[in-house]
């Protein structure tokens, strides 16, 4: 009986992890739209051909709370606080490295 309970618990935890991952992926997809809009409208120095790679770098280097803020902005709109968050993420060394790699892959910079 005990092994059955342990197996059921492990299976339940695995399902929770999969659900959390699916929710995170959905949130990141929704957030991408808001970040892309913000980059296109508030960061004119971002070349159009790098809009998607820059968006991906911002999302990939955002913390969970930041992604949640971006997903909220997809519903209520882009505000100055979100722009500040994007600026902070863009300033991170990991994001800078991501941006450089994506720009080089596109033959820009």
From TrEMBL:
This is Succinate dehydrogenase. It comes from Sulfitobacter aestuarii. The lineage of its organism: Bacteria, Pseudomonadati, Pseudomonadota, Alphaproteobacteria, Rhodobacterales.
């Amino acid at each position: 009986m005990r092994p059955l309970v342990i197996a059921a618990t492990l299976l339940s935890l695995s399902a929770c992890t999969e659900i959390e991952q699916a929710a995170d992926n959905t949130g990141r997809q929704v957030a991408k739209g808001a970040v892309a809009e913000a980059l296109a409208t508030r960061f004119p120095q971002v070349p159009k051909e790098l809009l998607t790679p820059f968006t991906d770098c911002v999302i990939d280097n955002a913390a969970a709370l930041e992604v949640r803020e971006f997903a909220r902005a997809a519903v209520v709109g882009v505000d100055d606080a979100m722009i500040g968050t994007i600026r902070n993420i863009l300033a991170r060394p990991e994001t800078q490295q991501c941006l450089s790699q994506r720009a080089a892959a596109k033959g820009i910079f």
